[in-house]
Specification:
This protein has 349 residues and is mostly beta strands. The protein has one helix and 25 strands. The strands form five sheets. The protein has a six-stranded antiparallel beta sheet with strand order 1-13-12-6-10-9, with no helix packed on it. Strands 19-18-22-16-15-24 form a six-stranded mixed beta sheet, with no helix packed on it. A hairpin with a 2-residue loop joins strand 18 and strand 19 (268-269).
Protein backbone atom coordinates (compact mmCIF):
# COMPACT_ATOMS: atom_id res chain seq x y z
CA UNK A 1 0.00 0.00 0.00
CA UNK A 2 1.40 3.34 -1.05
CA UNK A 3 1.04 6.59 0.83
CA UNK A 4 3.26 8.76 -1.35
CA UNK A 5 2.91 10.20 -4.85
CA UNK A 6 3.15 7.46 -7.46
CA UNK A 7 5.69 7.69 -10.23
CA UNK A 8 5.06 4.57 -12.30
CA UNK A 9 4.35 1.97 -9.63
CA UNK A 10 3.30 1.83 -6.01
CA UNK A 11 6.18 2.54 -3.68
CA UNK A 12 6.61 2.77 0.06
CA UNK A 13 5.52 6.03 1.69
CA UNK A 14 8.03 8.86 1.61
CA UNK A 15 7.06 12.40 2.47
CA UNK A 16 9.45 15.29 1.92
CA UNK A 17 10.76 15.10 5.45
CA UNK A 18 11.58 11.37 5.37
CA UNK A 19 13.05 11.82 1.89
CA UNK A 20 15.51 14.26 3.37
CA UNK A 21 16.29 11.79 6.13
CA UNK A 22 17.11 9.14 3.59
CA UNK A 23 19.41 11.38 1.58
CA UNK A 24 22.22 11.47 4.11
CA UNK A 25 21.98 15.17 4.75
CA UNK A 26 24.92 16.67 6.56
CA UNK A 27 22.95 18.34 9.31
CA UNK A 28 24.40 21.75 10.12
CA UNK A 29 25.60 21.94 13.70
CA UNK A 30 27.01 25.06 15.31
CA UNK A 31 29.29 24.55 18.27
CA UNK A 32 28.62 27.34 20.72
CA UNK A 33 30.55 28.04 23.89
CA UNK A 34 27.90 29.09 26.37
CA UNK A 35 27.98 28.62 30.11
CA UNK A 36 25.13 26.41 31.28
CA UNK A 37 22.95 27.54 34.18
CA UNK A 38 24.18 26.63 37.64
CA UNK A 39 22.69 23.49 39.17
CA UNK A 40 22.54 21.72 42.47
CA UNK A 41 24.66 18.68 41.58
CA UNK A 42 28.34 18.94 40.71
CA UNK A 43 31.11 16.59 39.66
CA UNK A 44 34.81 16.59 38.93
CA UNK A 45 34.04 14.62 35.80
CA UNK A 46 33.66 16.80 32.72
CA UNK A 47 30.48 15.87 30.87
CA UNK A 48 29.92 17.14 27.36
CA UNK A 49 27.05 17.24 24.89
CA UNK A 50 28.04 15.40 21.72
CA UNK A 51 26.59 14.81 18.28
CA UNK A 52 24.34 11.73 18.06
CA UNK A 53 26.06 10.91 14.74
CA UNK A 54 22.80 10.90 12.81
CA UNK A 55 20.53 13.66 11.67
CA UNK A 56 17.59 14.82 9.64
CA UNK A 57 16.57 18.02 7.93
CA UNK A 58 13.29 19.63 6.94
CA UNK A 59 12.82 22.07 4.03
CA UNK A 60 11.61 25.56 4.82
CA UNK A 61 11.30 28.90 3.05
CA UNK A 62 12.02 32.39 4.27
CA UNK A 63 8.94 34.51 5.07
CA UNK A 64 9.43 36.50 1.86
CA UNK A 65 9.32 33.21 -0.09
CA UNK A 66 12.46 34.15 -1.99
CA UNK A 67 14.87 31.63 -0.44
CA UNK A 68 14.81 28.05 0.82
CA UNK A 69 16.94 26.29 3.41
CA UNK A 70 17.12 23.08 5.40
CA UNK A 71 16.39 23.29 9.12
CA UNK A 72 18.07 20.68 11.29
CA UNK A 73 15.70 18.44 13.22
CA UNK A 74 16.71 18.22 16.90
CA UNK A 75 16.80 14.43 16.67
CA UNK A 76 18.87 13.94 19.81
CA UNK A 77 22.07 14.56 21.73
CA UNK A 78 24.61 12.38 23.54
CA UNK A 79 25.73 13.03 27.09
CA UNK A 80 29.40 12.04 26.97
CA UNK A 81 32.50 12.53 29.05
CA UNK A 82 35.91 14.00 28.26
CA UNK A 83 37.66 12.61 31.34
CA UNK A 84 38.65 9.20 32.66
CA UNK A 85 36.13 9.33 35.50
CA UNK A 86 32.65 7.84 35.74
CA UNK A 87 29.68 9.97 36.74
CA UNK A 88 26.62 8.50 38.43
CA UNK A 89 23.74 10.72 39.43
CA UNK A 90 21.00 13.04 38.16
CA UNK A 91 21.07 14.45 34.65
CA UNK A 92 18.90 17.38 33.55
CA UNK A 93 18.79 18.53 29.93
CA UNK A 94 16.89 21.39 28.36
CA UNK A 95 15.86 21.62 24.73
CA UNK A 96 14.85 24.98 23.27
CA UNK A 97 12.97 25.08 19.96
CA UNK A 98 10.67 27.38 18.02
CA UNK A 99 7.13 26.37 18.94
CA UNK A 100 5.94 27.18 15.43
CA UNK A 101 8.21 24.46 14.08
CA UNK A 102 8.28 21.68 16.71
CA UNK A 103 6.08 20.30 19.45
CA UNK A 104 7.88 18.17 22.05
CA UNK A 105 5.82 15.72 24.09
CA UNK A 106 8.50 13.72 25.89
CA UNK A 107 12.07 12.42 26.00
CA UNK A 108 13.72 9.02 26.05
CA UNK A 109 17.27 8.11 27.06
CA UNK A 110 19.43 5.11 26.24
CA UNK A 111 22.37 4.35 28.52
CA UNK A 112 23.81 1.94 25.91
CA UNK A 113 23.47 -0.99 28.30
CA UNK A 114 21.46 -3.07 25.87
CA UNK A 115 18.14 -2.31 27.55
CA UNK A 116 17.02 0.24 24.98
CA UNK A 117 15.12 3.48 25.51
CA UNK A 118 13.67 4.53 28.84
CA UNK A 119 11.29 7.43 29.45
CA UNK A 120 12.81 10.50 31.09
CA UNK A 121 10.79 12.75 33.39
CA UNK A 122 9.37 15.51 31.19
CA UNK A 123 8.34 19.09 31.79
CA UNK A 124 7.50 22.08 29.62
CA UNK A 125 7.06 24.07 27.68
CA UNK A 126 8.26 27.27 29.26
CA UNK A 127 7.43 29.94 26.68
CA UNK A 128 9.21 33.17 25.85
CA UNK A 129 7.55 34.52 22.75
CA UNK A 130 7.83 31.76 20.16
CA UNK A 131 10.70 30.02 21.96
CA UNK A 132 9.71 26.92 23.92
CA UNK A 133 11.94 25.18 26.48
CA UNK A 134 11.40 21.56 27.52
CA UNK A 135 13.28 19.61 30.21
CA UNK A 136 14.32 15.97 30.52
CA UNK A 137 15.39 14.54 33.89
CA UNK A 138 16.75 11.09 34.71
CA UNK A 139 19.40 9.34 36.82
CA UNK A 140 22.12 7.38 35.05
CA UNK A 141 25.79 6.55 34.82
CA UNK A 142 28.02 8.24 32.24
CA UNK A 143 31.04 6.02 31.75
CA UNK A 144 34.57 7.38 31.61
CA UNK A 145 35.57 8.90 28.25
CA UNK A 146 32.06 8.29 26.89
CA UNK A 147 31.93 9.13 23.17
CA UNK A 148 28.92 9.49 20.82
CA UNK A 149 28.57 5.70 20.74
CA UNK A 150 29.01 4.92 24.45
CA UNK A 151 27.47 8.02 26.03
CA UNK A 152 23.81 8.42 26.92
CA UNK A 153 21.62 9.06 23.88
CA UNK A 154 18.72 11.40 24.64
CA UNK A 155 15.97 11.81 22.06
CA UNK A 156 12.86 14.01 22.02
CA UNK A 157 9.43 12.86 20.94
CA UNK A 158 8.73 15.41 18.23
CA UNK A 159 5.90 16.58 16.03
CA UNK A 160 6.86 18.68 13.02
CA UNK A 161 4.56 21.69 12.55
CA UNK A 162 6.19 23.27 9.51
CA UNK A 163 4.17 21.71 6.70
CA UNK A 164 2.36 24.06 4.27
CA UNK A 165 0.96 26.63 4.94
CA UNK A 166 3.32 26.95 7.94
CA UNK A 167 6.45 26.32 5.88
CA UNK A 168 7.99 29.80 6.23
CA UNK A 169 10.33 30.83 9.05
CA UNK A 170 13.35 33.05 9.47
CA UNK A 171 16.48 30.86 9.47
CA UNK A 172 17.59 32.26 12.83
CA UNK A 173 14.30 31.07 14.36
CA UNK A 174 14.90 27.50 13.17
CA UNK A 175 17.82 27.06 15.59
CA UNK A 176 17.35 24.47 18.36
CA UNK A 177 19.59 24.29 21.43
CA UNK A 178 20.38 21.52 23.93
CA UNK A 179 21.79 22.56 27.34
CA UNK A 180 23.17 20.34 30.09
CA UNK A 181 21.80 21.86 33.30
CA UNK A 182 22.83 19.20 35.81
CA UNK A 183 25.40 18.20 36.86
CA UNK A 184 27.58 21.27 36.84
CA UNK A 185 31.07 20.14 35.89
CA UNK A 186 34.60 21.33 35.30
CA UNK A 187 34.06 22.86 31.83
CA UNK A 188 30.76 24.56 31.02
CA UNK A 189 31.74 25.48 27.46
CA UNK A 190 30.86 22.02 26.10
CA UNK A 191 27.52 21.79 27.90
CA UNK A 192 25.63 23.35 24.98
CA UNK A 193 24.89 21.74 21.61
CA UNK A 194 23.23 23.79 18.86
CA UNK A 195 21.48 22.62 15.69
CA UNK A 196 21.64 25.45 13.17
CA UNK A 197 20.02 25.81 9.75
CA UNK A 198 21.71 25.34 6.42
CA UNK A 199 22.68 28.29 4.24
CA UNK A 200 19.65 29.83 2.48
CA UNK A 201 19.57 29.56 -1.30
CA UNK A 202 17.57 31.58 -3.81
CA UNK A 203 14.25 29.90 -4.61
CA UNK A 204 11.09 30.27 -6.69
CA UNK A 205 8.52 28.39 -4.61
CA UNK A 206 5.45 26.86 -6.23
CA UNK A 207 3.16 23.93 -5.62
CA UNK A 208 -0.37 22.61 -5.52
CA UNK A 209 -2.65 20.87 -3.09
CA UNK A 210 -5.09 18.14 -4.11
CA UNK A 211 -8.40 17.01 -2.64
CA UNK A 212 -10.38 14.18 -4.19
CA UNK A 213 -13.47 11.98 -4.05
CA UNK A 214 -13.42 8.20 -4.43
CA UNK A 215 -16.03 5.55 -5.18
CA UNK A 216 -16.07 1.86 -4.30
CA UNK A 217 -16.65 -0.32 -7.38
CA UNK A 218 -17.63 -4.00 -7.26
CA UNK A 219 -15.67 -6.28 -9.56
CA UNK A 220 -15.44 -10.06 -9.74
CA UNK A 221 -15.72 -11.35 -6.21
CA UNK A 222 -14.59 -8.16 -4.51
CA UNK A 223 -14.35 -4.41 -4.80
CA UNK A 224 -11.85 -1.57 -4.92
CA UNK A 225 -11.82 2.22 -4.92
CA UNK A 226 -11.01 4.63 -7.72
CA UNK A 227 -10.98 8.47 -7.80
CA UNK A 228 -14.05 10.11 -9.30
CA UNK A 229 -12.88 13.71 -9.31
CA UNK A 230 -10.42 16.14 -7.79
CA UNK A 231 -9.63 19.76 -7.00
CA UNK A 232 -6.12 21.08 -7.65
CA UNK A 233 -5.23 24.41 -6.02
CA UNK A 234 -2.03 26.30 -6.88
CA UNK A 235 -0.38 27.55 -3.66
CA UNK A 236 2.16 29.90 -5.27
CA UNK A 237 3.63 32.36 -4.99
CA UNK A 238 5.02 31.32 -8.37
CA UNK A 239 2.95 29.53 -11.03
CA UNK A 240 3.10 25.84 -11.76
CA UNK A 241 4.67 24.90 -15.08
CA UNK A 242 3.19 23.75 -18.34
CA UNK A 243 3.76 20.02 -18.41
CA UNK A 244 3.24 19.46 -14.71
CA UNK A 245 0.89 16.52 -14.32
CA UNK A 246 -2.06 15.02 -12.54
CA UNK A 247 -1.45 11.31 -12.02
CA UNK A 248 -3.97 8.73 -10.88
CA UNK A 249 -3.68 5.01 -10.18
CA UNK A 250 -6.26 2.30 -9.56
CA UNK A 251 -6.79 -1.44 -9.90
CA UNK A 252 -6.79 -2.67 -13.50
CA UNK A 253 -10.06 -4.47 -12.79
CA UNK A 254 -11.85 -1.10 -12.62
CA UNK A 255 -10.98 0.50 -15.94
CA UNK A 256 -8.91 0.64 -19.12
CA UNK A 257 -9.46 4.25 -20.13
CA UNK A 258 -10.13 7.39 -18.11
CA UNK A 259 -11.36 10.74 -19.36
CA UNK A 260 -11.49 14.04 -17.43
CA UNK A 261 -14.95 15.59 -17.41
CA UNK A 262 -16.31 19.04 -16.60
CA UNK A 263 -12.82 20.52 -16.32
CA UNK A 264 -12.98 24.07 -14.98
CA UNK A 265 -10.43 26.73 -14.04
CA UNK A 266 -11.69 29.06 -11.32
CA UNK A 267 -15.23 28.03 -12.17
CA UNK A 268 -14.91 28.65 -15.92
CA UNK A 269 -14.97 25.66 -18.30
CA UNK A 270 -11.48 24.72 -19.48
CA UNK A 271 -11.89 21.50 -21.47
CA UNK A 272 -8.36 21.55 -22.91
CA UNK A 273 -6.51 22.10 -19.64
CA UNK A 274 -5.84 18.39 -19.01
CA UNK A 275 -4.33 16.32 -21.83
CA UNK A 276 -3.64 12.61 -21.54
CA UNK A 277 0.08 11.94 -21.51
CA UNK A 278 0.27 8.28 -20.60
CA UNK A 279 -1.93 5.29 -19.80
CA UNK A 280 -0.17 2.11 -18.76
CA UNK A 281 -0.75 -1.00 -16.70
CA UNK A 282 1.79 -2.79 -14.53
CA UNK A 283 0.76 -5.88 -12.67
CA UNK A 284 -2.57 -5.25 -10.97
CA UNK A 285 -2.60 -1.47 -11.19
CA UNK A 286 -3.11 1.11 -13.91
CA UNK A 287 -1.48 4.54 -14.01
CA UNK A 288 -2.97 7.36 -16.04
CA UNK A 289 -1.20 10.71 -16.42
CA UNK A 290 -2.72 14.00 -17.58
CA UNK A 291 -0.46 16.96 -18.30
CA UNK A 292 -1.45 20.56 -17.57
CA UNK A 293 -1.44 22.53 -20.81
CA UNK A 294 -1.27 25.92 -19.06
CA UNK A 295 0.42 27.24 -15.93
CA UNK A 296 -1.62 27.72 -12.77
CA UNK A 297 -1.12 31.07 -11.07
CA UNK A 298 -1.14 31.33 -7.30
CA UNK A 299 -4.68 30.74 -6.08
CA UNK A 300 -5.93 29.14 -9.30
CA UNK A 301 -8.35 26.25 -8.70
CA UNK A 302 -8.88 23.42 -11.18
CA UNK A 303 -11.84 21.08 -10.73
CA UNK A 304 -12.70 18.01 -12.79
CA UNK A 305 -14.50 14.68 -12.77
CA UNK A 306 -13.28 11.32 -14.09
CA UNK A 307 -15.16 8.92 -16.39
CA UNK A 308 -14.04 5.27 -16.71
CA UNK A 309 -14.58 2.54 -19.26
CA UNK A 310 -13.43 -1.05 -19.63
CA UNK A 311 -11.42 -2.95 -17.06
CA UNK A 312 -10.62 -6.63 -16.61
CA UNK A 313 -13.60 -7.27 -14.36
CA UNK A 314 -11.47 -9.56 -12.22
CA UNK A 315 -11.47 -9.58 -8.44
CA UNK A 316 -9.21 -6.71 -7.27
CA UNK A 317 -6.14 -7.97 -5.46
CA UNK A 318 -6.16 -5.06 -2.99
CA UNK A 319 -2.37 -4.81 -2.82
CA UNK A 320 -2.36 -0.99 -2.78
CA UNK A 321 -4.65 2.01 -2.45
CA UNK A 322 -5.84 4.03 -5.40
CA UNK A 323 -4.34 7.49 -5.54
CA UNK A 324 -4.51 10.81 -7.34
CA UNK A 325 -1.99 13.63 -7.12
CA UNK A 326 -0.17 16.57 -8.63
CA UNK A 327 3.48 16.20 -9.67
CA UNK A 328 5.95 18.78 -10.92
CA UNK A 329 7.85 18.26 -14.14
CA UNK A 330 11.10 18.09 -12.15
CA UNK A 331 10.87 15.22 -9.68
CA UNK A 332 11.66 16.18 -6.08
CA UNK A 333 12.03 19.84 -7.03
CA UNK A 334 13.30 21.56 -3.85
CA UNK A 335 11.18 24.61 -4.66
CA UNK A 336 7.93 22.64 -4.51
CA UNK A 337 5.71 23.45 -1.54
CA UNK A 338 2.89 21.43 0.02
CA UNK A 339 4.34 18.11 -1.13
CA UNK A 340 2.57 16.15 1.60
CA UNK A 341 -0.74 17.67 0.47
CA UNK A 342 -0.18 17.19 -3.25
CA UNK A 343 -1.75 13.72 -3.39
CA UNK A 344 -4.63 11.78 -1.85
CA UNK A 345 -4.84 8.06 -1.14
CA UNK A 346 -8.17 6.32 -1.54
CA UNK A 347 -9.76 4.24 1.23
CA UNK A 348 -8.56 0.69 1.75
CA UNK A 349 -10.84 -1.84 0.13
Amino acid sequence: MSDSPLETAPVSGLDRRSLLKGSAWAVPVIAVAVAAPSASASTTTNLALLSPQFGSGVPLFTPALTQRYVASEPVGVVVGSTTGQTYTGPVILRLEVDRRLWDVTGFTYDTRDGQGDRDAAFSGPVLTGDRAVYSATFAATVVANADPYTGILVRPQLTFLGDYPNDTLEPADAVSTWTLVEPSDTTASDNVYVNGPGTPEDASPFGATVTADFEEVASGGGSAYRPTGATVTSVGPNPTAVGDVVRLSFDVALGDTVSPTNVALNGTPAPGLLAEQNNSASGDFRSVVFSLTAPLASGDVVTFGLAYSGGTGNTPLGTFSSQIGYAATVANDPDQRAVSQSYVNGPAS
